[in-house]
Amino acid sequence: MINLEGKRAVVTGGASGIGRATAALLAELGAVVVIADLDRERGEEAAKETGGVFVRCDVSRREDCARVVDTAVALHGGVDVLFNNAGIIRRSTVCEITDDDWDLVMAVNVRSVMLLSGLVVPLMAASGGGSIVNTGSGWGIKGGARAVSYCASKGAVVNLTRAMAIDHGPANIRVNCVCPGDTATGMLAEEARQLGESVESFYADAADRPLGRIGQPQDIARTVAFLASDAAAFVSGAVIAVDGAGTA
């Protein structure tokens, strides 16, 4: 049922982790993919693997986001699927966090969704519709310790998703949010380092959930592919936890 033949996709944060796994799966299912990321070396590797194209992009900057969308239009004529996946984390309390770190997390995790969606929605509307998938988090649904900026940003993404689904549903644009639990990516390892913990023990603690393991990037990618496809034609405004029942 999941067939993306002819779909034109943009994936942010596509050089590694969930973004890279999703870009690969979308391409495997027939989509052409533009990968946006700051990491040129790994981004170009991912583009080569998927047969797509890489655009170096700071997703917090409007001009960079516009360059990504312009590339998709120039190469493929438009955008049918947008996966707003780029994100960062800074583990701290409100007493510890700096103004710069707060602003950076909000810019990368929230402003980027607004910027890219605002550029893509008119293209989707003109071509009859499309699918936008935003990466939230289990911590966008419930709180977590020493992660105030991340929790705030992902909570914003969750409700931004709902607002966009309401605004753009009449143009046949579906907007959904996938909320991963702890997933084996470079960002999860970075969290361990920020907290001064070993990666091994951090991963072991993260696996303490009903399904007994942490997520793999492919787990999230499969859900994104479903939401991007016509199999999810009546799914919009949904917030889907992909976390082994962690938030349950």
Brief overview:
With 248 residues, this protein is α/β, with parallel strands linked by helices.
Descriptive notes:
It is globular, with a radius of gyration of 17 Å. A seven-stranded parallel sheet has the order 3-2-1-4-5-6-7, with helices on both faces. It has one domain: 3-Layer(aba) Sandwich (Rossmann fold), CATH 3.40.50.720. The protein has 248 residues and is of the alpha/beta class. Strand 2, helix 2 (40-50) and strand 3 (53-56) form a beta-alpha-beta unit. The longest helix has 28 residues, at 99-126. It has eight helices and seven strands.
Task: Kindly list the characteristics that best describe this protein.
Rossmann fold, alpha/beta, 248 residues, 8 helices
| CATH superfamily (homologous) name | NAD(P)-binding Rossmann-like Domain
* CATH class categorisation: Alpha Beta
> Biggest sheet, open or closed, and with what strands and sense?
7 strands, parallel
As a percent range, the share of helical residues equals 40-55%
Q: Structural class given helices, strands, pairing?
A: alpha/beta
Mean pLDDT: 97
**Poorly predicted runs:** none
The CATH architecture can be named as 3-Layer(aba) Sandwich
How many H/I helical runs?
A: 8
Q: Alpha-carbon distance between the termini? A: 28 Å
- Using only CA atoms, what is the Rg? 17 Å
CATH overall fold name: Rossmann fold
Q: Strand order of the main beta sheet, please?
A: 3-2-1-4-5-6-7
Q: Helix and strand succession?
A: EHEHEHEHEHEHHHE
Instruction: Please state the overall shape, judged from the principal axes of the Cα atoms.
Output: globular
